[in-house]
Amino acid sequence: MNKRLWIGVGAVILLISGWLGYHQLFPVSRTVGSLVPSGALLVLASDRLQDTVSARVLRTQISLRQLPIFDEARQKLDRFLYSTADSATVLKFVSGRNIRYSLHSISKTTLDFIFYVPITANDQVFLNRLTNPDPRQYRVLNHTFAGEKILDLVARGNEPVGSFILTDNFLVGSVSGILIENVAKRMHQSLKLTLAEPDFHVDGDHLAGLSVRPEVLQSLFSNVGSLVRLFLPEELNLQFRQSASRSHLIGYAVDQIGGRRDVAALFANQAPRRIQHAYLIPQSTATLYHIGISDAARFGQSLSNLLGSASSDFLRERFNQIKSETKPLYQSLGSDILLCRLESPTGSLRQILILTAQDGKQLANAYQQVAYRSGAQRVASPKSYLGHKILLLNVPELPASLFSSLFSGFSQSWITQHGSSLIVANSEDAMQDYLQQVQRGAVWTADERQAELLNTTLRPANFTAFARLNREQTNVLTSWPLAWQNLLAQPDPATGSPALANLENMAYQASYGNENIQSTVVLGRTTRRASSAVLNKLLLQKKTEFNAPLISAPIVTGTLSDNSAQFYAQNNAGQFVLVTPEGDKLVQNNTDGPIRSNALGADFLNNGRLQYLFMTDRTLYIADPVRIRKEVALQAIPLPKGIDVSFLARPRGSQQRNMVALVAHKDGHIYALDRQRRTFVRLMTAPHKGPLQLPFQVIVTPTGMDILGIQADGTLNHWRENGTQYPHFPTQIERTNEEEPEIRFVSPALLPPGQAQIRAITDEGQLLTLNANGLIAKRTQLYRPVRNGSFGLFPDEDQTNWLLLRTTDTEISVLDQQGQRRFDVRALQSGRNNVRYHRLGAGIELISVKSGGFTMLYDLNGHIVNDRPIPSDFPVALQFDERTNELYILSGAQQAVQLFSIRLR
Question: Where do transmembrane segments lie in this chain (predicted)?
Answer without folding.
Answer: 5-22
